[in-house]
Amino acid sequence: MKMEKVQIEITSKCNLSCEYCLGKNLNGKFIQSNLVEKLDGFKEYILYGYGEPFLHPNIKEIISSIDGKLTISTNGMVDKNFKEVVELVDKVGISADLDERVRKGLKFSKIVDKLKILDGKGVMQVVVTKDNLSKIRDLAEIAASNGLDFLATNVVAPNESIYKKSVYFECSKRNVELTKELDETFLIEAIKGLSKGKAERYKKLLEKIYGAGYSLNLLSIFDSKDRIELAYKAEKVFEEIEDITKSYGVELIKPEFFGDSKNRECPYKKGMFVRADGLISPCMLFAYTHNEFVNSHKKLVEQYTFADLNRQELDKIFEAFVYFEKLRHDMENFPWCADCPYVRGCWYAEKNIDCYTNEPSCSECLYSCKIARCLM
Fold it and tell me: pTM score, two decimals?
């Protein structure tokens, strides 16, 4: 098996404190240059993780040692080496927000200064929440007018408080569309009818949904009218943003605001994540133990690392990864928990296991259905 891309966490140390970051309170470590040198032969290198790459004292030397397409992501707060690094890489992602209270330590004026240096190599990245949805157009205008592509992602919530600020709905949009004319009276009618062997309308609905390969979480849909309405609103906002980016001739990489269990793909397929300490994980989300809040429930995601760059060569690392890479190659190997009527209160989901016996599981991965987006 040959991997094509690798994401390298240059450091786990960060100079910001973002309220939605899953990697808060990590011990700040810097990757050793000799470990990066071992990562030879990939087509694409993506340099970022839970820390700020430009804090690494040897960032220029590390980048100079890499042979392949190079992308680096930064929060834009470090001036040292910025111009020199921009000349060495193919793309620079620069994460931004107009609200400095959310990204504590951010100074937007410093980002504006750096936009002029990027010279067509830039992508502005923004995390979308209720707090900034009304300001996203302004950010898109700033990015596009400076020749930057615009990448937006929904928030991956570390707790219930942040989850309540999200503007997406995890259930498959097809199911939402098929049931939007229904309300709780339909469910009451179905329950009464089923007890008598009837409920024809409900049975026909299930035949249509299950016949297309979907499951149905009707209770979640009925219980989430406000979230659904907000998701539709966010879609309209991004229709306007698409007009802005087209007018400037730059690319919009937008998130989805509904799930789709039949349209999932792992952005890390044929790729892996290297932590600052050299441990290797299938993706950034599995790199460290952390809490997430998704599908209206809290879950614990345990660290899943399968190799150690300090001790192993690449061929042995690839051998250790064969099983999981085959599994995620087709995301239908994982159920889409959002469409399961039992997801709330499910012991498996709370432990990041699934009813297909996968441990760890990608069954609630927001990146797989593009609700969350990244530079991978």
Answer: 0.95
